[in-house]
Amino acid sequence: MNIQASILVVAGSISLTVTLMLAWCLTGIRYLEMGFLKKLFPSYQYLLKSHIDYLLMTGLLMVFFLLFDHFRLSPPAVILLSMTIGSLLNPFGFLVLAIKPNLRQHPATPFGAIMTCSFLLTTIGYIGAAWSVAHAAVLTS
Predict the structure, then answer these.
(1) Residues 128, 74: contact at Cβ < 8 Å?
(2) Angle at Cα 126 formed by Cα 87 and Cα 96, nearest 5°?
(3) Is the separation of the CB atoms in 69 and 112 below 8 Å?
(4) Degrees to nearest 5, angle at CA 10 with 121 and 26
(5) Where are the domains of the chain?
(6) How far is it, in rounded angstroms, from Cα 141 to Cα 138?
(7) What is the residue-wise DSSP string for 42-104?
(8) For residues 22 and 17, what is the distance between their CA atoms, to the nearest angstrom?
(9) What does each C-alpha distance from 60 to 28, 102, 106, 123, 141 come to in angstroms?
């Protein structure tokens, strides 16, 4: 399977789009006092966390794409897929909690198990990416 690093740009673009939509939802709840948004997202704090996490993931995905491009690296598919899936799924967990703040988060629950897998994927992807870039940087200096 040949996965190109450009998948990170696609995931980053999706993440940025979601970030901007969430920013409008936050604005609608906070400043425009739109009741239907308050009902849809009863937990403003989790909605804000989702927004910030998607924004963070956008930056990380784009930066690592640029680093891979700069060092002409073709990271393994497992790194790229782990980064992509984890970066999109982690903030989605906060979005789910913004809608259902009382959802059980224990790892033994379905939601908890999905989030645990997401955290593992994100960790594997970004550690692999960081070490790949660090290795390339040391070799080129």
Answers:
(1) no
(2) 25
(3) no
(4) 80
(5) 7-140
(6) 5
(7) --HHHHHHHHHHHHHHHHHHHHHHHHHHHTT----HHHHHHHHHHHHHHHHHHHHHHH-TT--
(8) 9
(9) 27, 30, 27, 13, 23
- H or E element that contains 25: helix 7-30
Nearest to 126 by CA among 11, 16, 14: 11
For the beta carbon of residue 117, count every other beta carbon within 10 angstroms. Answer: 14
Annotate 69-88 with b (16+ C-beta within 10 A) or e (fewer). Answer: eeeebebeeebbbbbbbbbb
Residue whose pair of structure tokens reads 């009741």 in the numeric block: 35
User: How many Å apart are CA 51 and CA 33, to the nearest integer?
Assistant: 18
Written as tens digits, the pLDDT of the chain (141 aa) is: 568 999 999 999 999 999 999 999 999 999 888 889 999 999 999 999 999 999 999 999 999 999 999 999 999 999 999 999 999 999 999 999 999 999 999 999 999 999 999 999 999 999 999 999 999 999 997
pLDDT at 52: 98
d(CA 79, CA 125) in angstroms, rounded, equals 4
